[in-house]
Amino acid sequence: MVERRLKSIDFQFYNKPLHSIVLEILREAIVSGVMQPGEKLMEAQLAEEMGISRTPVREAIRKLELEGFVHMIPRKGACVAEYSVKDIEDTFKIRAALEKLAIELAIEKVTEANLEELTRVLAEEAVVIESADKEAMVEKDAEFHEFIYRIGENSRLFVIMNNLTEQIRRFRFVSLGGSGRGREVLEEHSHIYEALKMKDVKLGQELMETHINNTRQSLMGAIREKMLSGQRI
Question: Which of the ends of the chain has fewer CB neighbours closer than 10 A, N or C?
Fold first, then answer.
């Protein structure tokens, strides 16, 4: 009997091609930690868990390899990708540069309606932080940043940031798990909101850079703890 970690797919709730559904399910399992770094991905087992054939599972694994979530290891097959400290540092350097550009573009375009919507996002973020729902915290953190990308109205940057966001989401589950980090993130988001409201590009970029650096430091601290306990990253 296969131990089920993935739900069987109920097709009446989906209006997408099967390979897209499988891709989303497997990506989310990796991002949320249901599937751990270094874990071997067995096509037959995954297909049985979801109640489908192996073909869409194989297609999803290939796509996940292109996205950087899966590594193909000779004589072992597909495994959930592990990250080195350098991988994470490099990712955050890219993120910091792009987020500073995003906030500059957003300040040029921001409207009162945008500010009202961001106020709603911050209020909802405060609620989920108090509930200590890590998954909801991750989603609201991502929503705040994604909304800033949208305000800037640069479609190419939006696409690039969305691709990077899927990698970053995996890190957010770790960095937001630390004691008190959720409240710190909310405070940092609130300060960025004020810079947007004042249309102060220099301040907005400084606050965004500080926010990204604080997130990186929180993540690296959590990773050090994992490594000391013998866990993979």
Answer: N
| Dihedral pair phi/psi, residue 69, rounded to 5° | -85, -20
Give yes or no for a contact between 48 and 2, defined as CB atoms under 8 angstroms apart. yes
Pick among 3.30.70.2190, 3.40.50.720, 1.10.150.20, 1.20.120.530: CATH of 85-228: 1.20.120.530
CA dist 206 and 186 (Å) reads 16
pLDDT digits 0-9 by tens, 142-159: 899 999 999 999 999 998
Sign of CA dihedral 55, 59, 60, 64: positive
pLDDT score at 151? 96
Length of the chain: 233
The confidence score (pLDDT) of residue 2 equals: 45
Q: Beta strands of 44-93 (E only): which ranges? A: 70-73, 77-80
Token pair, residue 105, equals 């573009």
